Amino acid sequence: MYRPNNSAIDDPEVLRHVMTEIGFAALVTPHEAGIEVSHVPVVVREEGGASVIETHLARANPHWKLAGARSVLIFQGPQAYISPSFYPSKHEHGKVVPTWAYIVVHAHGAFETFNDTEGLGAHLDALTDRHEAGRAEPWSVADAPVPYVAALKRGIVGLRFVAERLEGKWKVNQHKSLEDRQGTYAGLMASGEQGVDLAQALASFPEGE
């Protein structure tokens, strides 16, 4: 991924947090016949300093048969259009153009499969609990009939992906002048929920970065 120095984020703890918050990724695996792409919900954890990402695929999806092949998981975070009207400098010299703000994380590595009932159960519990947390009446896998869940487990394959390399990119105008950063912040704050997330990311950068 092209990452100018002012947009590169490499702190694994920060990247794990963002991957967890996004919770969904595109799994991309090149192979001899082309490129396989699957869109998957994920569980992210730290194990012994490594970033481990778990997901699952339908057994009918041939992607899982590429286990061991070099792959990348792409986590697309918030994104929003940046209008030149956000910049005070527009009125000074007019040398501004539209751009796009976004946050993205790439996890590089390879995945292995798992099919054991205990492993799949733990994965589905973790995935469900992560997204049901905070609900007034959180749903649990145990709420469904045991034979029904067992049949569903037979229709999926678990994937365990150990990230050998993580790279993040925060493109939120952090390289702009203080005035244009302030204008970007105000513009993004009025650009919907994703804009607000990007504005907050911009505010996390010290002045001059």
Automatic annotation (TrEMBL):
Gene3D superfamilies, sorted: Electron Transport, Fmn-binding Protein, Chain A (2.30.110.10)
Pfam families registered for this protein in UniProt: FMN_bind_2
Protein known as: Transcriptional regulator
